[in-house]
Specification:
Blueprint (H helix, E strand, L loop, with lengths): L1 E3 L22 H11 L3 E7 L2 E8 L2 E4 L17 H12 L4 E8 H13 L7 E10 L4 H7 L2 H18 L3 E4 L4 H10 L2 H6 L2 H10 L5 E8 L2 E11 L2 E9 L8 H15 L4 E6 L3 H5 L3 E11 L1
Parallel strand pairs: 4-5, 10-11
Antiparallel strand pairs: 1-2, 2-3, 3-4, 5-12, 6-11, 6-12, 7-8, 8-9, 9-10
Length: 299
């Protein structure tokens, strides 16, 4: 194994070991995160057709991308995960604390097995879950698959939105970024303090990576909700959203999600991924949990 800091390494072009993980393991997202949020040392672990971007600080090694901002972690490359886990232990050497978080099951257990084979115990522990909806080819079929109560609630809130704000429309493109930021900052509590100047710059640069899309929901031509997501052949990933609090009675957040799901179906996306978080609304829209695991060990 080679541990280096070469952002131009060819291994960045490898496919993620865990499928349907969006942009999070890829260079565009990782490098953007590092530029805005990173500290310490760049430790790109590469061996036999696999790459795992790590960073080290104060004797602790983690995967690049803090847990609150990065929904999936996985090596790039699809062979030899167990051997990679063992090689990583040997390459890091003794006296290092390792935390690998947000790993789908299909990569967490092989990596842990390799680390165990090298003499380091790191049993996977579930610490989060993503909420994922498998999408049919038709929006009406999607609604029909929901529980009756949930289907009725979506329709009721959409009718109320129309009665208060007119027909909902989705507009896509970076022009709505200022509205997205303003809605965040107008929110109450912790959410309202999330979008500081540094976070605004980070989100703005995320819109430059492949597959990023900003969607703004309008009613009567006025922006009332917005979301940043990512699209690829595996689906649509809803990364972050906000709504105008003065229009909360019209349920703009619910209608935004409904219209994004409809747009994903129309585009032929096979799934809609709400990413991390156990908010009840995700499961009322048909999502099921995808467990994510953390490995912690001391070499």
């Amino acid at each position: 194994m080679r541990i280096h800091a070469d952002w131009g390494a060819a291994a960045w072009d490898l496919p993620p070991a865990a499928r349907a993980t969006g942009p999070f393991p890829r260079r565009g997202f990782v490098e953007t995160w590092w530029r805005h949020r990173g500290r310490g040392d760049v430790l790109l672990a590469e061996a036999e057709g696999l790459l795992l971007p790590l960073w080290g600080d104060g004797g602790v090694v983690r995967i690049m991308g803090e847990e609150d901002l990065t929904d999936y972690h996985t090596p790039l490359g699809r062979k030899g995960l167990t051997a990679f886990g063992a090689a990583l232990v040997r390459a890091l050497g003794p006296g290092v604390r390792v935390r690998l978080d947000s790993l789908p099951e299909e990569v967490a257990f092989p990596l842990a097995g390799g680390m165990a084979a090298a003499g380091v115990a790191a049993a996977p522990v579930q610490h989060e879950a993503a909420a994922v909806v498998d999408l049919p080819e038709d929006y009406d079929d999607y609604l029909a698959a929901l529980r009756g109560k949930d289907r009725h609630e979506i329709r009721r809130k959409r009718r109320r939105f129309v009665s208060m704000l007119g027909e909902p429309r989705l507009e896509h493109g970076p022009a709505g970024f200022d509205s997205f930021v303003a809605m965040h900052r107008a929110a109450e509590g912790r959410k309202g303090g999330f979008m500081d100047d540094a976070m605004e710059a980070f989100f703005g640069d995320l819109l430059e990576i492949d597959g990023a899309v900003l969607s703004v929901l309008t009613g009567d031509g006025e922006p009332v909700a917005a979301g940043i997501g990512f699209e690829d052949e595996d689906g649509y990933y809803l990364y972050n959203s906000a709504y105008a609090p003065e229009h909360r009675d019209a349920s703009p957040g619910v209608v935004l999600v409904d219209r994004l799901v409809a747009a994903a179906i129309e585009a032929g996306r096979p799934r809609f991924d709400f990413l991390k978080g156990d908010e009840a609304y995700k499961y009322r829209t048909g999502a099921v949990a995808r467990p994510l695991f953390a490995l912690e060990a001391a070499t």
